[in-house]
Amino acid sequence: MNKYIFSFLIIISILISSCEVINEVDSKISQKKHLVNDIAPYNNNGELNAVIEIPAGTIEKWEVNKQTGELDIEKISGEIRKIDYLPYPGNYGMIPQTLLPKSLGGDGDPLDIIILGPAGEKGSIVNCKLIGVLKLLDRGEQDDKLIAVQEGTKMFQIENIKQLDAKYFGILNSIETWFINYKGKGKMQPQGFGSKEEAQSILDAAIKAYKEK
User: Fold this and answer.
1) Rounded CA separation 87/60 (Å)
2) What is the rounded distance in angstroms from the CA atom of residue 52 to the CA atom of residue 37?
3) Are 95 and 145 in contact (CB under 8 A)?
């Protein structure tokens, strides 16, 4: 078995089973609000808010509808879209009140983010800390994924990509391997990892773009 895939399977188990906290209060709040427009990108403590669209360990594709603010399941020709690969290695979602226009290398949607922590509930809001970014090209177009660690878990002590790789060896390789293969061979090209500072610059630009839209 490929060593990265083996590491990936172990890490999936660790992330889903060993972390303790799921924010049930935020989950209830999110059901009453527009998930893009009514939630600030930061909470009152200065931590990042992230909306979970696809929980860790699942394969169904869900996405927040920018118009309605509700979570919709993606369909192709009437069929529910499912990942034809291993399940998501972390909670995947977006940061509210962000927009990265194509002029800045984005796709006009809220920023994508993968949150390392326990499997959460679809549509729930989790507090997390930004630690870096995975740089990707999706069939030639920029499709970066911010990386964060969830509050209330052991991983929340991690401050940056280097610390993550040192303490949890193999996670970065597993995340990169997953993202460059989940859409099929050759469709996603890796461009390496960016620092916490690079990730913050992307986030700041996306928040500014949203305010100016």
Assistant:
1) 9
2) 15
3) no
Check which CATH number belongs to the domain holding 29 and give it.
3.90.80.10
Strand 112-116 to 145-150 pairing: parallel
Number of domains in the chain: 1
**Residues 125, 96: Cα–Cα separation, whole Å:** 10
Tell me the pLDDT tens digit for each residue of 131-156.
999 999 988 888 999 999 999 999 99
- CA distance readout (Å), 199 to 68, 98, 202: 28, 13, 5
Handedness of CA 17, 19, 21, 23 (dihedral sign): negative
Dihedral in degrees, nearest 10, Cα atoms 48, 161, 109, 28: -40
Question: For residue 113, with 0-12 CB atoms within 10 Å meaning exposed, 13-18 middle and 19 or more buried, which class applies?
Answer: buried
**Tens-place pLDDT, residues 2-20:** 555 555 555 555 454 444 4
Q: What is the pTM of this model?
A: 0.86
Q: Which residue type occupies 10?
A: I
Structure tokens at 201: 């610059």
Q: Hey, which residues does 49 pair with through a beta bridge?
A: 127
Dist CA 132 CA 148 (whole Å): 7
What range does the domain containing 146 cover?
3-212
Look up tokens 């594709």; give the residue.
Answer: 61
Q: How many CA atoms lie within 13 A of 25 on its CB side?
A: 2
- What's the CA gap between 205 and 95, in Å, rounded? 13
